[in-house]
Amino acid sequence: QVQLVESGGGLVQAGGSLKLSCAASGRTFSTLTMGWFRQAPGKEREFVARITWMNGFRRYADSVKGRFTISKDNAKNTLYLQMNSLKPEDTAVYYCSAQGDRNTWDYWGQGTQVTVSS
What we know:
By secondary structure, the protein is mainly beta. 0% of the residues lie in helices and 53% in strands. It has no helices and 11 strands. The strands form 2 sheets. Strands 2, 4, 5, 6, 9, 10 and 11 form a 7-stranded mixed beta sheet that branches. The model has no long low-confidence stretch (mean pLDDT 94).
């Protein structure tokens, strides 16, 4: 089992920045492939970014590429999402997730709200 707790959300003006954190426990963090997802009101949850445990390869949704950066600190068991040049359409609840043994997104945090005002 993996427990995930997000933090760092809040209200920011368009063009501003926020850094989300996700503290993980319950399993060796360095072996986890982890990611960020988001869900806006009335929309389905969507992929934002992921980082693989083996080689640190990163992948981003086209909508955030060049603005968001995903990273993980294995010593601190923490995943991050640095969000720059935020837009009102980035407003959503952001979720941290980790893959299980079958490479599916099995573990989820409770989410943190990000609101970008225009």
